[in-house]
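User: I'm putting together notes for a lab meeting next week and I want to include a structural view of one of the chains we've been expressing. I don't have a solved structure, so I'd like a prediction I can at least talk through. The sequence is below, exactly as it appears in our construct file.
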Amino acid sequence: MRLFVALDLREEVRQALRQLIERLKPECRVARWVRPEAMHITVKFIGHTDTKNLDSIGAALAMVHSMQPVEMHFGGLRFSPSERRPRVAWCGVEASANLAQLAADVERELEPLGVTRESRPFLPHLTLARFQSSEGLSKLFDAANELESKDFGSARETEFHLFESILKPAGAEYRRLRTYPFVKGAR
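Assistant: Thanks for the context. Below is the predicted structure for the 187-residue chain, given as structure tokens.
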């Protein structure tokens, strides 16, 4: 199994990003655009693990709690690692400080199970597209400049999810395995 931990998106945010992608697709046809229904905020990529580890991973994730919901605001269009040689286009996420703490707590709980800690700092984002070529990117950069301060909505989350990522020729398919309320009293 290929696993990751993520926050889901509200439908209003998904719809705003769906409209953005429909607007940008004609500008860069060689991009592999993410299906809006598959978008999520990755908290921790676990990677390949044996099915027999699922219960211990679940027990570890159940130990993660926060005093407050995670507040997020989605906006702008950015590129990584740089505009000169982008591999990914993404939407920025401004989040309350407890999202980074939530990610650190997930890492801390999973580390004793042999899940490697991330070496890079946690950066919440929503991947919109991946690039194999620079064809058509100049028009996309122009659109990005117009969208620098574009607001795609906000969310308040009280639970995260364990997902399985199933790789397929048409792109990854995500299956939610379990849900973990991380704020006391949340469903």
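A couple of points you could mention at the meeting. The first helix runs from residue 11 to 24. The chain has one domain: 2-181.

User: Perfect, that's what I needed.
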